[in-house]
Design a protein that fits this description.
Layout lengths: L12 H13 L1 H6 L1 H12 L3 H26 L4 H18 L6 H15 L1 H13 L6 H53 L28 H4 L3 H30 L4 H13 L1 H12 L4 H20 L4 H30 L4 H17 L1 H12 L3 H20 L10
């Protein structure tokens, strides 16, 4: 009988997937529930829609700083302390919103929350790709992690709406901040830095054939390529659209005589339906490249927007939610996956952070601009038409984009 130790039956990377899923799950609360707070804040303080939106813009500016800094740190250090500190900072900032008395306090407290929230995207998405580098089901693992955000949207939008209706918006903010910290603290106990030999496999895992050489790009050279510019532009459009929907979807739906409860549920469902899109795109990516998924996703979102643009009935609302949610989910996975596929692992966290930070910084002003356009025209028609055309352009760029596979980084 052999005395040799047996390999682990369960690859620890799958526990890391669970922890990373929990981390991105919190973003469903941080990024997708401000629309639920929108009208309660507007009604209590008498602020315009543009002024209320400025609080979310402040959150996104903090998020930009955090997502880039967190990604850079994750390329060099263990993700565990990064996530714990992020949870502490974001939870504190969100909880403070329960005490606001003026718009400047709203901006400052949400900025603090954003400083913590950004790392919960760049850190988990880069960490999981390191654990599953050259493993089968790598795309599935990444799909599960980015699906955490969609599940968070599905759970938190109706939950926060219930808390607002039951305990008021101040009580809802306090609960949201505490919950954010608890989830991040628990996930940080499980997550670990990927071992140096990520190309090795344990019992029950099969190595993915090395179909192609993937150069490990440095940040300086990667960001100068036209492919990175194209990926970032597409991400900018998607984030811009997302931020507009996060803030103005519920107000737009209620303006069309959809009930506040149904509007909040549809907002959550919009994020929830992105979950199958994220996961299915992971399975597909294990067979084909991420680029085709990106193309189809952009065109799909463009074609779904007329349903929102001419919203009049409940069926139009839920048809939009279904099609846009699926395409949005697959686009999210494709953005993260294509960066790892094109540029390798060396600076992956920082590249995710830079691309996301640029997109979120630009998108940060989108809710304010959309609110200003509404205040000026009395309608969101101009806003949604522009977004529809931008997605159409993004699909064309994704289709024509070339992989920089012949370029070698230093």
């Amino acid at each position: 009988m052999s005395n040799e130790p047996k390999g682990p039956r369960i690859f620890y990377g799958w526990l890391v997937v669970a922890a990373c899923f929990a981390a991105t799950f919190t973003l469903g609360e941080a990024l997708f529930t401000f629309g639920v707070f929108f009208k309660p804040l507007k009604n209590e303080f008498g602020w315009s829609r543009a002024l209320v939106s400025s609080g979310y813009t402040a959150f996104l500016i903090g998020y930009c700083i955090s997502v880039m800094t967190g990604g850079r740190l994750a390329d060099r250090y263990s993700p565990r302390p990064i996530l714990f500190v992020s949870g502490l900072l974001a939870g504190f900032g969100i909880s403070l919103c329960s005490q606001i008395q003026n718009v400047n306090q709203l901006r400052i407290f949400l900025f603090i929350g954003g400083l913590g929230a950004g790392a919960t995207w760049s850190v988990p998405t880069s960490t999981v790709q390191r654990w599953f580098y050259r493993r089968r089901r790598a795309g599935v693992a990444l799909g599960i992690v980015v699906a955490g955000f969609g599940v968070g949207c599905l759970v938190f939008a109706p939950l926060i709406n219930y808390l607002v209706l039951t305990y008021g918006w101040r009580g809802a903010y306090l609960f949201a901040g505490i919950l954010f910290f608890i989830i991040l603290a628990i996930s940080s106990l499980i997550i670990k830095q990927a071992p140096a030999n990520t190309g090795t496999v344990s019992q029950g895992e099969r190595s993915m054939p090395n179909h192609q050489t993937i150069h490990s790009w440095g940040t300086g050279k990667a960001v100068t390529t036209s492919s990175f510019a194209g990926i970032t532009f597409i991400h900018c459009v998607a984030v811009l659209a997302f931020q507009i929907l996060a803030v103005h979807f519920v107000p737009h739906a209620t303006d069309a005589d959809i009930s506040p409860t149904a509007s909040a549920a549809a907002l959550g469902l919009l994020g929830g339906l992105s979950v199958p899109g994220r996961i299915v795109s992971g399975f597909i990516s294990d067979k084909v490249a991420w680029q085709k998924t990106l193309v189809l996703s952009c065109f799909g979102m463009s074609l779904s927007l007329p349903l929102l643009l001419f919203l009049k009935e409940y069926w139009m609302l839920y048809c939009f939610v279904f099609f846009y949610g699926l395409c949005h989910g697959s686009r999210v996975s494709a953005h993260i996956g294509i960066l790892g596929e094109f540029y390798g692992l060396r600076s992956l966290g920082e590249l995710i952070g830079i691309s996301t930070a640029i997109a979120v910084f630009i998108g940060a002003f989108a809710p304010y601009v959309a609110g200003f356009i509404f205040d000026t025209t009395g309608s969101y028609s101009v806003v949604f038409t522009i977004v529809m055309l931008l997605f159409l352009i993004s699909g064309i760029i994704a289709h024509t984009m070339k992989r920089p596979e012949l370029m070698i980084s230093s």
